[in-house]
């Protein structure tokens, strides 16, 4: 068939079925495809030509060869948990390629500190695999029950333990990937040192499926802690929280695995909507820190309690409560993990995933809140998140009693206000959620021109026909 000829929908479906062979599946009706198109924030509503589910890597390679020859656009998808629309189509002639059937555990070597998993393995299952081997894979997300390894790596996900262990890219030793023309990049090594040219693994991790399909990865494993010491601490403001962060780093070092900032507003929302059985905080306070320290085998307990006693004695913090059981700990973490979801129960919300140098977080919150409150009087700022690595989810709930549509019509005003502060402080407009289709225009505005030229050159070299996740990241 002439590669310059646009295929009809029927030809696309027939071609996909032929490429995938007997084991693969092609979904082509709206009802069959609905679950693959319904992304979490419901911002994008474009149909797809079809959904293809290859059974294995050879089938995916054949699919890519066919699609590249016929210029059929492919949208990689794993767990469909992305928050910037990178995993759903931009136009109705695009094909979603779901890797959920590539879900094998290829190898586990806890003694050597790594495991190799396919892209369709659910993140929670990856945790279970590591734990069964007596180890730990320290990438924890609120969506870990449905997020899959391929998407986690393609978006370079972060989570709540980046402070101690790094984001997805830093937890990856090697990847296997199918390129646009069907070639297989075999980079599944377990080397901690490999100084033989460009790091292609780091190029593919975080590319959001625009450079290839990550089909498997060798991931780092760590010794499993004997337990955790967890506390919620009352602080007067983010500046006091930052001072506490310095104290805990001095006392615990790399054992400090989480340092999360939470506003009282978010706690009150969860209590109001019955999302918490009880208030897990020690006392009323405008701000809280959820902090956690790993206790390793043979280690002495009480490090967190000792540090907090010092902080209380110096007046650095106002109050604190330590988890006395695993149930206490889970309730504390629930308060943090539900901070974003509860806002939907309060009406419309405008959300931002930003980062600044850690020391600038207090300034970001103060200036960002004031800037948006000037633009939208009555707005309710609800900034929270990973203060220990500078990543704040800077969210805004609509004023009480406001019309949700009228509030969302002011989203551009809120964005301009927040991003202005973020860029002035030397930060990033996307910390861990990626660019997808939501932030392509913004990336073009804020990214260094030479950096954009380099990114476009890489895209052109690896996907000259532009079939992989078109329109995402670079627009």
Description:
With 475 residues, this protein is α+β, with helices and mostly antiparallel strands. Helices cover 34% and strands 20% of the residues. It contains 16 helices and 19 strands. It has a five-stranded antiparallel beta sheet. A four-stranded mixed beta sheet has the order 1-2-4-3. The protein has a four-stranded antiparallel beta sheet with strand order 13-14-12-15, with helices on both faces. α1 runs antiparallel to α3 (57-70), α8 (238-252) crosses α10 and α12 runs antiparallel to α14. The mean pLDDT is 95.
Short description:
By secondary structure, this protein is of the alpha+beta class. The protein contains 16 helices and 19 strands. A hairpin with a 4-residue loop joins strand 18 and strand 19 (391-397).
Alpha carbon gap, first and last residue? 29 Å
Instruction: Give the overall shape, derived from the CA principal axes.
Output: globular
The portion of residues forming beta strands comes to 15-25%
Helicity level, as a percent range?
25-40%
Low-confidence runs: none
**Biggest sheet: strand arrangement:** 5-6-10-8-9
Let me know the number of strands: 19
Question: What is the structural class?
Answer: alpha+beta
Q: What is the multimeric organization of the chains shown?
A: single chain
**Largest beta-sheet characterization:** 5 strands, antiparallel
Average of per-residue pLDDT values:
95
How many helices?
16
Spatial extent as radius of gyration? 23 Å
């Amino acid at each position: 068939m002439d590669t310059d000829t646009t295929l009809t929908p029927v030809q696309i479906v027939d071609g996909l079925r032929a490429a995938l062979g007997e084991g693969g599946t092609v979904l082509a009706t709206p009802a069959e495809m609905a679950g693959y198109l319904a992304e979490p924030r419901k911002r994008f509503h474009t149909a797809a030509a079809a959904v293809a589910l290859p059974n294995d890597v050879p089938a995916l390679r054949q699919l890519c060869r066919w699609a590249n020859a016929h210029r059929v656009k492919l949208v990689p998808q794993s767990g469909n948990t992305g928050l910037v629309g990178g995993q759903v189509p931009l136009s109705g002639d695009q094909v979603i390629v779901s890797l959920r059937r590539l879900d094998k555990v290829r190898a586990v070597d806890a003694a050597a500190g790594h495991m190799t998993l396919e892209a369709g393995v659910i993140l929670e299952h990856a945790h279970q695999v590591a734990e069964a081997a007596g180890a730990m894979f320290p990438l924890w997300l609120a969506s870990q029950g449905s997020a899959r390894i391929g998407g986690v790596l393609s978006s370079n996900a972060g989570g709540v333990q980046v402070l101690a262990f790094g984001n997805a890219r830093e937890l990856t030793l090697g990847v296997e990937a199918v390129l646009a023309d069907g070639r297989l990049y075999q980079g599944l090594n377990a080397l901690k040192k490999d100084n033989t040219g460009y790091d292609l693994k780091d190029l593919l991790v975080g590319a959001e499926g625009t450079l290839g399909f990550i089909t498997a990865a060798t991931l780092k494993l760590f010794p499993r802690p004997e337990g955790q010491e967890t506390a919620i601490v009352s602080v007067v403001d983010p500046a006091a929280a930052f001072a506490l962060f310095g104290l805990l780093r001095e006392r615990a070092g790399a054992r400090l695995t989480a340092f999360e900032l939470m506003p009282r507003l978010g706690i009150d929302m969860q209590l109001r909507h019955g999302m918490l059985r009880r208030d897990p905080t020690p006392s009323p306070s405008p701000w809280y820190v959820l902090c956690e320290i790993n206790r390793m085998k043979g280690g002495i307990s009480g490090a967190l309690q000792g540090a907090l006693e010092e902080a209380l004695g110096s007046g650095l913090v106002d109050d604190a409560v330590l988890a006395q059981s695993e149930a206490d700990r889970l309730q504390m973490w629930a308060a943090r993990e539900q901070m974003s979801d509860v806002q939907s129960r309060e009406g419309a919300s405008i959300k931002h995933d930003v980062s600044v140098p850690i020391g600038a977080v207090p300034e970001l919150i103060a200036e960002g809140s004031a800037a948006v409150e000037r633009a939208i009087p009555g707005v309710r700022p609800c900034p929270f998140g990973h203060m220990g690595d500078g990543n704040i989810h800077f969210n805004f709930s609509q004023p009480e009693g406001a019309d949700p549509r009228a509030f969302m019509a002011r989203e551009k005003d809120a964005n301009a206000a927040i991003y202005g502060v973020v860029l002035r402080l030397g930060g990033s407009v996307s910390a861990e959620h990626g660019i997808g289709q939501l932030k392509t225009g913004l990336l073009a505005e804020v990214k260094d021109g030479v950096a954009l030229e380099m990114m476009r050159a890489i895209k052109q070299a690896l996907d000259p026909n532009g079939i992989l996740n078109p329109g995402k990241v670079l627009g």
